[in-house]
C-alpha cells in the first residue's frame, strides 16, 4: 500500500465514523435524547465522535487533508428494530475492517487506535443487539412523531441552525486535526469547541427530530485554509454570526414562549460569546508564532498503555523563529504519542 492509498484508507475510516455519529444522533433526536434508548444512542454517537478525532488527528499529523464528508450509512428507518438491525450490520463490517487494518499497519500508535476502534465497534454491536432483544416486538412498531406547535417559519430557522451548527462542528474539527500539536493548546481548544457546538446543534435538531422532520445533514463545506490565522478568522466569523442569529431567534415570540428552549438559547448566546473570546486569544497565540514546534528528528515513540499516557514534551524542541502563524504541520517523522487514552475522553460529556 503506498502513501496515497494509506491516507485514503484513513480518510475512509474517518468518513465511516462521521456517518456513525450522524446516524446515531438523528435516531436519538427522533426518540428523544432523554429516553433510555436516546441516551444510549447519544452516548454511542459521542464515542464515534472521539473515533473521528483519533483518525482525523492521525491524518492531520501526517500533513494530509482530512475528508470531512461523511460516508453513506445504509439503514432501514421504519422502526427502532429495523434501525438497530442496520446498525448491527454496519458495526459488524467495521469490526472486520479495523481488525484487518490493525494487523496491516506498522505504526504502533495507529495500530493501537485501529485496535481500539475495532473493540469499541464490538461494544456498539453488543449494545445494539441488547437493545434489539430488550425491545422485542415493541421495537417493530413504526416510529411515531408528534405534531409541532411551531410555525413553518420557525421550523425553517431551526433547520438553518442545525445546518450552520453542523458546519461549525465540522470546521472546528477540521482545524483541530490540521493544527494538532501536543505543544500547542490550539488543536485541543478547537476540538472542545466542536463538541460544544454539537451540543448546541442538538437543541434544534431534537426539536425537528421529534416532529419527524427530515435531517439530511448534507455536507455544508468548510474552510480549507492551510495556515492558522485565516482558519481561526473563519471560525471566529461563524461563531460571532451564530451568536447574533441566536440573539434574534431568542426574541422571536414563539421561541420566547417556549421556556425550556429559551433558556438553552440564552445559554448558547453567552457560550458563543465565550468561544469568540477563546478564538481571539488563540489568534494572539497564532500571531506571536507557536511557542514550540517539534523537530523532525525526535526519537521513535514509546508504546504506552492506554489510560496512563501523559507525555512530557521532549527536550529536543526548537522555537519557531518567524511570526507568520503556524503552517499545517508536515510531520513525516515520529512524534511522541499524543493523548490517545481513555483520559482523552475528558470533556466528552460537555
Ligand atoms: Fe466508531
Ligand atoms: Fe461504532
Counting DSSP H or I runs of 4 or more residues, the number of helices is 9
Overall helicity: 55-70%
Classification by helices and strands: mainly alpha
The count of domains is: 1
Question: What fraction of residues sit in β-strands?
Answer: under 5%
Q: Using only CA atoms, what is the Rg? A: 21 Å
Counting copies of identical and different chains, the oligomeric state is single chain
Overall outline: flat
Q: CATH H level: which superfamily?
A: Ferritin, core subunit, four-helix bundle
Distance between the termini: 39 Å
| Poorly predicted parts | 291-350
Q: What's the CATH C level?
A: Mainly Alpha
User: What's the arrangement of strands in the largest beta sheet?
Assistant: 1-2
Order of helices and strands: HHHHHHHHHEE
Q: Describe the main β-sheet briefly.
A: 2 strands, antiparallel
CATH architecture: Up-down Bundle
Bound molecules: fe (ii) ion
CATH fold-level label: Ferritin
The tally of beta strands, per DSSP, is 2
Overall residue-averaged pLDDT value: 86
Primary descriptors:
350 residues, mainly alpha, Ferritin, two-stranded antiparallel sheet, 9 helices, 62% helix, disordered C terminus, binds fe (ii) ion
Amino acid at each position: 500500500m503506498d502513501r496515497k492509498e494509506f491516507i485514503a484508507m484513513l480518510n475512509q475510516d474517518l468518513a465511516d465514523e462521521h456517518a456513525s455519529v450522524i446516524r446515531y444522533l438523528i435516531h436519538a433526536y427522533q426518540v428523544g435524547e432523554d429516553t433510555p434508548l436516546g441516551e444510549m444512542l447519544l452516548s454511542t454517537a459521542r464515542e464515534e465522535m472521539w473515533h473521528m478525532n483519533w483518525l482525523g488527528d492521525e491524518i492531520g499529523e501526517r500533513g494530509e487533508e482530512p475528508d470531512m464528508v461523511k460516508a453513506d450509512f445504509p439503514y432501514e428507518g421504519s422502526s427502532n428494530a429495523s434501525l438497530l438491525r442496520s446498525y448491527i450490520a454496519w458495526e459488524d463490517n467495521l469490526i472486520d475492517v479495523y481488525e484487518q487494518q490493525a494487523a496491516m499497519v506498522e505504526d504502533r500508535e495507529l495500530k493501537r487506535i485501529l485496535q481500539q476502534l475495532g473493540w469499541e465497534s464490538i461494544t456498539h454491536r453488543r449494545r445494539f443487539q441488547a437493545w434489539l432483544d430488550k425491545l422485542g416486538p415493541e421495537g417493530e412498531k413504526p416510529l411515531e412523531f408528534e405534531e409541532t406547535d411551531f410555525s413553518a417559519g420557525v421550523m425553517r430557522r431551526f433547520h438553518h441552525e442545525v445546518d450552520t451548527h453542523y458546519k461549525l462542528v465540522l470546521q472546528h474539527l477540521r482545524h483541530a486535526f490540521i493544527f494538532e500539536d501536543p505543544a500547542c493548546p490550539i488543536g485541543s481548544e478547537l476540538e472542545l469547541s466542536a463538541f460544544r457546538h454539537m451540543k448546541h446543534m442538538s437543541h434544534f435538531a431534537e426539536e425537528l427530530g421529534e416532529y419527524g422532520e427530515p435531517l439530511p445533514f448534507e455536507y455544508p463545506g468548510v474552510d480549507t485554509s492551510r495556515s492558522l490565522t485565516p482558519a481561526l478568522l473563519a471560525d471566529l466569523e461563524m461563531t460571532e454570526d451564530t451568536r447574533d442569529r441566536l440573539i434574534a431567534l431568542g426574541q422571536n415570540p414563539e421561541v420566547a414562549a417556549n421556556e425550556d428552549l429559551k433558556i438553552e438559547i440564552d445559554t448558547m448566546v453567552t457560550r458563543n460569546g465565550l468561544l469568540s473570546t477563546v478564538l481571539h486569544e488563540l489568534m494572539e497565540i497564532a500571531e506571536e508564532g507557536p511557542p514550540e514546534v517539534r523537530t523532525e528528528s525526535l526519537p521513535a515513540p514509546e508504546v504506552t498503555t492506554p489510560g496512563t499516557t501523559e507525555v512530557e514534551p521532549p527536550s529536543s524542541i526548537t522555537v519557531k523563529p518567524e511570526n507568520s502563524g503556524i503552517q499545517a504541520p508536515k510531520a513525516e517523522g515520529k512524534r511522541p504519542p499524543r493523548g490517545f487514552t481513555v483520559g482523552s475522553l475528558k470533556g466528552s460529556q460537555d
